[in-house]
Amino acid sequence: MGQEELLFSSNLACPECGFSIEELSPRMFSFNSPYGACPECDGLGAKMIVDTDLLVPDPDKSIEQGAFEAWAGSTSNYYPQFLDAVCTHYGIPKDVPVRELPPDMMKKLLYGTGGERVRFRYENDFGHQKEAYVPFEGIVNNLERRYRETASDAMREHIESYMSAKPCAGCKGHRLRKETLAVTVGGHNIAYVTSLSIGEAQRFSRNSS
User: Fold this and answer.
1) Residue 107 contacts residue 139 (beta carbons within 8 Å)
2) CA distance 67 to 60
3) Where are the alpha helices (H) located in 39-169, listed in sequence order?
4) pLDDT tens-digit map of 163-179
5) Where are the domains of the chain?
6) What distance in Å separates the CA atoms of residue 56 and residue 69, rounded to the nearest whole number?
7) What pLDDT, on the 0 to 100 scale, is given for residue 209?
8) Which of 37, 75, 106, 155 is a good FRET partner for 200, with 20 to 30 A between their CA atoms?
9) Three-class DSSP category at 40
């Protein structure tokens, strides 16, 4: 009445940014629980991603020489033909060492065309041909997608040889949901507290009580 309007939420939501969380419960603070685990890494704190240093172990090789090892050794001619189509579309030379390719060309090869379609003419082992204009997802994105989707242990093991574990970008390696990490005591979240030594945790507890 005659004062500044104040907004409150019964849903534990911020009226300014819209961020909200469910009612706090112990299961939210455990990365072993689906209610607390980071959904991007399933509570592991790290993700297996394609490592470009492993994907291109010898940058002095050209595309024709099999610089992109994961695709060069493919038993299917689908991927080499798709790579040829992308190189033709963007004028990417296949006979020079990949270390000499401009960054924008390497980005297209590794991470895709961003939805831009390229002319792809595919001929299978029986001589049958198909032609279409399709976007190129990139070698890195292709391998990571196939790693997630495949039911073959042999395929997963093959792709893993080009991958390494990196801290999860979603939780920064803390293994918990962002909603859980937003809960703080004394200005710090549970990830900070659990990283403390016993003595540091004791002092933090005393100062925060």
Assistant:
1) no
2) 8
3) 52-55, 69-72, 78-90, 103-111, 139-149, 153-160
4) 999 899 899 999 999 98
5) 1-45+170-209, 46-167
6) 6
7) 66
8) 37
9) coil
Tens digits of residue pLDDT in 136-156: 999 999 999 999 899 999 989
Rg of the chain's alpha carbons, rounded to an integer? 25
- Give how far Cα 10 sits from Cα of 13, 26, 48, Å: 8, 20, 39
User: Which CATH architecture group holds 46-167?
Assistant: Orthogonal Bundle (1.10)
**Residue 208: pLDDT band by 50, 70, 90 thresholds?**
confident
Fold of 1-45+170-209: ABC transporter ATPase like fold (1.20.1580)
Give the span between the Cα atoms of 206 and 200, in whole angstroms: 10
Place of tokens 């419960």: 25
Over residues 120-127, mean pLDDT: 81
- Give the dihedral sign, CA 98/103/105/110: positive
Amino acid at 39: P
Q: Tokens standing for 193? A: 């507290």
Whose CA is closest to 194, among 179, 175, 166?
175
